[in-house]
């Protein structure tokens, strides 16, 4: 599958606190649905590898396979790469937009309790000591797009699945470009 086919156009959708998606919205296009795929890696099973250009998050499995999830990624200017670990996990996390986000989007609430309308979605996995997370979303249509402020978003069913599989301490590798 080519990258052009896999990724959706960058979307200019702002955060929509309070929006509660209906179940039909969580039905992703086939290429972004959670699935087992062939995947070569020298990383240990359980490692998370995020390919931002492809809009996929992989959990390395034994025997040259990975569990692949469709994701939304950081929009232009909010993309990054690196090596981190999951430092904590939270069910129905609260959302406190950082000051930089409030400055860019002053209409955002200063705090929002966890729940179905929260932009953080059903679960969050915190990446190192950064402001970045792997989390759910109340905007399933953004999966496959570059819209976030640097976090990685999954539909709520997928982030719950990932949350249940991944322990604190898991290695996370974020890559911008495909490996040759």
Main beta sheet strand tally, sense and closure = 9 strands, mixed
Beta-strand portion reads 25-35%
Q: Considering DSSP H and I runs of 4 or more, what fraction of the residues is helical? A: 10-25%
Mean pLDDT: 87
Assigned CATH superfamily:
L,D-transpeptidase catalytic domain-like
- Can you tell me the CATH architecture? Beta Barrel
Q: Structural class per helix/strand content?
A: alpha/beta
Total number of helical segments? 3
Q: In total, how many beta strands? A: 11
Count of domains: 1
Distance between the termini: 16 Å
What's the Cα radius of gyration?
Answer: 15 Å
Order of helices and strands: HEEEEEEHEEEEHE
- Give the class-level CATH name: Mainly Beta
At the fold tier of CATH, the topology name is L,D-transpeptidase catalytic domain-like
User: Numbering strands along the chain, what is their spatial order in the largest sheet?
Assistant: 1-4-3-2-11-6-7-8-10
Subunit arrangement of the protein: single chain
List the helices and strands and how they pair.
Layout: H1 3-6, E1 35-38, E2 48-51, E3 56-61, E4 65-70, E5 73-74, E6 82-91, H2 99-104, E7 123-127, E8 133-135, E9 146-148, E10 152-153, H3 156-165, E11 171-175
């Amino acid at each position: 599958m080519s990258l052009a086919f896999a990724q959706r156009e960058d979307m200019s959708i702002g955060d929509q606190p309070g929006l509660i998606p209906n179940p039909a919205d969580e039905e992703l296009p086939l290429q972004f649905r959670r699935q087992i795929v062939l995947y070569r890696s020298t990383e240990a099973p359980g490692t998370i590898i995020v390919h931002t250009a492809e809009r996929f998050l992989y959990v390395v499995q034994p025997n040259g396979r990975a569990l692949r999830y469709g994701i939304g990624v950081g929009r232009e200017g909010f993309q990054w790469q690196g090596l981190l670990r999951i430092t904590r996990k939270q069910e129905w996390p609260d959302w406190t937009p950082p000051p930089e986000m409030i400055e860019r989007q002053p209409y955002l609430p200063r705090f929002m309790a966890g729940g179905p309308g929260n932009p953080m979605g059903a679960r969050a996995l915190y990446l190192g000591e950064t402001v970045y997370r792997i989390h759910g979303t109340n905007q399933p249509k953004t999966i496959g797009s570059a819209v976030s402020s640097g976090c990685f978003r999954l539909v709520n069913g997928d982030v719950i699945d990932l949350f249940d599989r991944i322990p604190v301490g898991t290695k996370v590798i974020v890559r911008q470009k495909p490996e040759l």
